[in-house]
Amino acid sequence: MSDDELNPVIHTPARLRIMVTLATLRDGDDLSFTGLQDVTGLTPGNLITHLRKLEDAEYVTTNKNGSGVTARTSIAITHDGRAALKEYSTVLRQLLDSAGQSQQP
Q: Which of 17, 44, 60, 95 has the most CB atoms in a 10 Å sphere around its CB?
């Protein structure tokens, strides 16, 4: 991937929502699976699928605590995930700025 390409792992709208939501948390904080589902509006199946892609890229971590009815899955953004989102934002801003400049009279 070159410096001027958008990260395809993050660029998917659902994964971008997940990353932005998790990036609002302080380092070391996490969000429950159901909390992340509520904020993003994704179905459980869709959320699991997108979280797997983000985990494979090492952008998020998931942690399951407990079992049965009291089980809680928490999700957190990793340092690499924050860095990737920051780079994605920078590239997107550059692309938008260059598009705006090319339309100037």
A: 60
